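Note to self: the last two entries modelled the partners one at a time, which told us nothing about the interface. This time every component goes in together.
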Amino acid sequence: DVKVTQSSRYLVKRTGEKVFLECVQDMDHENMFWYRQDPGLGLRLIYFSYDVKMKEKGDIPEGYSVSREKKERFSLILESASTNQTSMYLCASTKTYRQTQYFGPGTRLLVL
Amino acid sequence: AQTVTQSQPEMSVQEAETVTLSCTYDTSESDYYLFWYKQPPSRQMILVIRQEAYKQQNATENRFSVNFQKAAKSFSLKISDSQLGDAAMYFCAYMDSNYQLIWGAGTKLIIKP
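The predicted structure of the combined assembly is written out below.
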């Protein structure tokens, strides 16, 4: 079975802090994604990566950056956390774009 | 731009009965994929079913089936013999020609014992 893990289930940070969210997949998937999930808005794509060191902006990249130094690991960085970044963050991966995306358990981030 | 609409924020169904969750989408493309994902409380998002637009036959997975109406741009999910474990948020998603998923807002499904 594909396994996608995220470094934390819950995080509480203060405004202005730098926040790192990490995602690891164990199935040698090329493509990895970071989504933000808010009630009534579904999932919105922040960034995705189709290869090591490659990244593409999604629909809402402002205030976020990403890093993919190894194939299995995709990090989401909030350079200076703000209260409007309080949300659930979901990581996903897939072998090829047309295949099913496999999700991690999510990180619920609260920025105070 | 493509959009996905789930008009039912919440649905409830008696255990063992059948429920249908609606999803409509807007696109000018002819080749695409559609998905239903399930997110149980505090658990991971998992794929329920997928449909390729070029296939006329509706996809089925055990108790889950879809009613895909391409001309009407409708993609509803039917759950037969509802079970307590079916309680979850259900998301409809459209995959565009750039292979990006566009998500609906979700429907919360409540199963009454």
